[in-house]
Design a protein that fits this description.
Layout (H helix, E strand, L loop, with lengths): L1 H11 L17 H7 L8 H11 L6 E6 L3 E3 L4 E3 H14 L3 E7 L17 H13 L3 E4 L17 H21 L1
Parallel strand pairs: 1-4, 4-5
Antiparallel strand pairs: 2-3
Helix pairs in contact: 4-5, 5-6
């Protein structure tokens, strides 16, 4: 069904825009569930990537994954955010696809924290910096909402929102310098 949908979109799109599923992050048992019908075991890294590719078949240009975690438990190891993103960028690039972090952010309990150096919101900054250092091509921070009515959203009128928007501005300038 996904392949048929992609083919129909491509027929109608005269601008050759990117197509993705908009998929969220996979369960650490996604492949095991697919093969065995139960949540009985963790996936390997290769199985994780295989499932993402299954959900983003030929015709889809972008593998989408949401990310709110800093450690990803797998059958043979636990990956850091950096290791998961680096592996994802490399794997999907080899398959002719862009890796997009379709949604990322931090949970409210981490809002307002500071690290030992006094950096405000170190976890959200870690996510931004990790995406830049691993070559993630596209990402969307959750969630700017002018009315501030969406769960875990922010506006420019909050400390966190101002911080995120300034961080976005800084990272966008750094990306621009990279490609100039």
């Amino acid at each position: 069904a996904i392949t048929d949908f992609t083919a129909e979109v491509k027929k109608a799109d005269t601008h050759n825009r990117m197509i993705t599923s908009g998929n969220a992050i996979l369960r650490p048992t996604q492949y095991f569930q697919h093969v065995n019908g139960t949540m009985g075991g963790l996936d390997t890294l290769e199985e994780h990537h295989a499932m993402n590719l299954l959900f983003h078949p030929d015709g889809m240009d972008v593998v989408s994954e949401h990310n709110y975690i800093f450690e990803y438990a797998l059958k043979e190891q636990t990956l850091s955010l950096y290791e998961l993103m680096k592996s994802s960028v490399e794997t999907y690039r080899k398959n002719g696809k862009v890796y997009m972090v379709g949604e990322f952010g931090i949970v409210p309990l981490e809002v307002g924290e500071k690290d030992a150096s006094g950096t405000t919101y170190p976890r959200i900054e870690e996510m931004f910096r990790t995406m830049m250092s691993t070559g993630v091509q596209l990402s969307f921070v959750w969630n700017y909402d002018y009315s501030n009515e969406t769960e875990y959203s922010f506006t420019q009128n909050t400390e966190y929102g101002d911080y995120v928007l300034q961080l976005l501005k800084t990272c966008n300038a750094e990306y621009k310098d990279l490609i100039s």
